Amino acid sequence: MATAADTDAMRRAIELAARGLGSTSPNPVVGCVITDASGHVVGEGYHERAGGPHAEIHALRAAGVLARGGTAYVTLEPCNHTGRTGPCAQALTEAGIARVLYAVADPNPQATGGADTLRAAGVEVAHGLLEDEAEAGNIAWLTSVRLGRPYVTWKYAATLDGRIAAADGTSRWISSPESRADVHRLRAESDAVVVGSGTMRADDPHLAVRGIEGATQPLRVVIDTDAAAVRAGARVLDEAAPTLVAVAQDAAPVPYVTAAGTAHGDTAAPVPAAGEAVPSPEPDAGGPAVLRLPRAERGLSVPALLAALHERGVRSVLLEGGPTLAGSFVAAGAVDRVIGYLAPVLLGAGPAALADAGITTITGALRLHVTHTDRIGTDLRVTATVPKGA
Ligand SMILES: Nc1nc(O)c(N)c(N[C@@H]2O[C@H](COP(=O)(O)O)[C@@H](O)[C@H]2O)n1
């Protein structure tokens, strides 16, 4: 039976886990709090980066001998395997922990089983305290392990009448500076940012994280079905940051693109298999890698793209545009969360945030669950999730 103190400690562990957002991939975010035998907090920790110590190890190190006879609160079931680091279930047992409360079971078949190992060693174990909150905090990683594809957040900014640009195509700036700053936080928490070449040509977005100290730059993924934007050498391709251009399997050979944006010549390489990335032949010059994917009814195959990204360790994707690409993702059932920045602006004409998503009748509408509504600057930010099985 969990007490109010147990709930407080687990809530703190969830807060700690969130500190790892954006820097632990392909690993989960995990937090841990350790109390001594009389219930005082003696150690805290969180998983900071893949390959580094797990949350439990940081917390045990902080607690030292005071962990003996105490309780460990962990947001994810302690691992049971030797991977890049040793098994946490064993470390907790060796430190003399008497009780372990964890929020969410580990779905990773290589690591699961820590609860059983702890019980077999005589440790009292309970599962499920603040499970929903811990699950929400680690949803990208949990989704990616369960489904074998990254967790996808579609983000857009629109007027109150749902338009992302005026009839003449102008769109800067619909949302407030505060909303735009918030998008940098979203990018910093994502492993990859995905944009269509239409948006790239229209807006030439930078897609990098700015204004967040220590942020890891997400992989920039440009969907450029016929490699037209690559040949045009758009700005996003010029920078020495990781960029992947997804083109159709049968698209014309992709030219080399240098850091200066100069395209010169074809790769002359044989057309690679679907899902195979071809590094730029001038990697030092900052050119993009190219991923060839099967065509689908709408552009490229979204499942093939997500499978290829998952293979590269991408656990979370921020889909930034535009409406056609968003429509393809929705049609493919590949959007998990929607974040809309709604500005108190009316246009009355211009493109809608979402283009055709294959929904033709009201009974087919994708109905979402609103999880948060927040004022951001002068805008309203609505966060909604797609119910499982929708
Ligand atoms: N309980 C727990 N705490 C952490 O802090 C973790 N990072 C994990 N991760 C689990 O172990 C796998 C990663 O193992 P390596 O760090 O690569 O050895 C990860 O997939 C999770 O299952 N668990």
From TrEMBL:
CDD domains: Riboflavin_deaminase-reductase. Its EC number is 3.5.4.26, 1.1.1.193. Residues 4-126 form the CMP/dCMP-type deaminase domain. Its cofactor is Zn(2+). Binds 1 zinc ion. It catalyses: 5-amino-6-(5-phospho-D-ribitylamino)uracil + NADP(+) = 5-amino-6-(5-phospho-D-ribosylamino)uracil + NADPH + H(+); 2,5-diamino-6-hydroxy-4-(5-phosphoribosylamino)-pyrimidine + H2O + H(+) = 5-amino-6-(5-phospho-D-ribosylamino)uracil + NH4(+). This is Riboflavin biosynthesis protein RibD. It comes from Streptomyces peucetius.
